[in-house]
Specification:
By secondary structure, the protein is an alpha/beta fold. The chain has one domain: TIM Barrel. Strands 1-2-3-4-5-8-9-10 form an 8-stranded parallel β-barrel, surrounded by 5 helices. A two-stranded antiparallel sheet has the order 6-7. The radius of gyration is 18 Å and the shape is globular. The model has no long low-confidence stretch (mean pLDDT 97). Bound molecules: the ligand O=c1ccn([C@@H]2O[C@H](COP(=O)(O)O)[C@@H](O)[C@H]2O)c(=O)[nH]1. The site of the ligand O=c1ccn([C@@H]2O[C@H](COP(=O)(O)O)[C@@H](O)[C@H]2O)c(=O)[nH]1 has 19 residues, from strand 10 and helix 11. The ligand O=c1ccn([C@@H]2O[C@H](COP(=O)(O)O)[C@@H](O)[C@H]2O)c(=O)[nH]1 binds next to strand 10 and helix 11. It comes from Thalassobellus suaedae.
Length: 271
């Protein structure tokens, strides 16, 4: 999917919501455990109930890898279902990959070709030659960690290196890489006070923003400083939506939570 198609979808749905599909078998409604593939059954119900309220889904691969082959199969069924039934939806494999060049190419093939995700998250720590192999894929997006939502972000990312915070170095340097137009960035909603500075460096890039809901980030603050002329934000909520209920009504409860966020977004877009 191109960035223009994503922007069109945002404007059509009046939503820049991304729903995180972080499936934990201990948290899903127990009646689903009788299904042949409980993870996929859960995802399918959530997707069918919420697709008109969001523009992206983000399965975090950890929640699938943890269940071995069954988990990976459920991930494959989920992305295939999304691509076949809801091709207008942007898909994110939250895998936080990145390695020496030839290995990164294989990661990119796994997520862009075999699983056919629109985007994958990567860690910048290994630098240019670990990220450029992802950027080489046309109409695919590489979402690089910039300033993460967790407390540990302050261990390295905000430390000053050669007179500048490390996350700023990451943003500035990445702009010089080949095919950098295929980059998006992760910035945590819990770091709202940093968005204005970040927008100075990357005014036009899309930002994937996790951390609203369960982690306490505030949507209004993020939008105030992080939004650009094309909206430029994908706000992710995972647990706050998908675990709204652990009963038979779980999909409707998730849709209700998603609608609360979508309505807030529509108001912001109409301002
Ligand atoms: O900085 C980051 C980067 C990634 N994440 C991931 O986003 C979701 C957030 O889930 P919630 O349940 O809405 O808190 C999860 O997959 C994280 O691994 C992040 O939170 N922060």
């Amino acid at each position: 999917m191109t960035t223009n198609q994503l922007v069109q979808e945002i404007n059509k749905k009046k939503s820049f919501l991304c729903i995180g599909l972080d499936v934990d078998l201990n948290k899903i409604p127990q009646h689903l455990l009788k299904e042949e593939d409980p993870i996929f059954a859960f995802n399918k119900a959530i997707i069918d109930a919420t697709h008109y309220l969001c523009v992206a889904y983000k399965p975090n691969t950890a929640f699938y890898e943890a269940y071995g082959l069954k988990g990976w199969k459920a991930l494959e069924k989920t992305i295939n279902y999304l691509n076949e039934k809801y091709p207008e939806i942007f898909t994110i494999a939250d895998a936080k990959r990145g390695d020496i060049g030839n290995t990164s190419t294989m990661y990119a093939k796994a997520f862009f070709e075999d699983l056919a995700f629109d985007s994958v998250t990567v860690a910048p720590y290994m630098g240019k030659d670990s990220v450029e192999p992802f950027l080489a894929f046309e109409d695919k997006h590489t979402i690089m960690l910039a300033l993460t939502s967790n407390a540990g972000a302050f261990d390295f990312q905000t430390k000053t290196v050669e007179g500048k915070e490390l996350y700023k170095q990451v943003l500035e340097t990445s702009k010089t890489w080949e095919n950098s137009e295929n980059l998006m960035y992760v910035v945590g909603a819990t770091k709202a006070e940093y968005f204005a500075d970040i927008r100075q460096i990357i005014p036009d890039s899309f930002l994937l923003v996790p951390g609203v809901g369960a982690q306490g980030g505030n949507l209004q603050d993020v939008c105030k400083y992080g939004m650009n002329d094309s909206v430029g934000l994908l706000i992710n909520s995972s647990r706050g939506i998908i675990y709204a209920s652990s009963q038979e009504d779980f999909a409707q409860a998730a849709a209700n939570k998603a609608e609360e966020l979508q309505k807030e977004m529509a108001l912001i877009l109409n301002q």
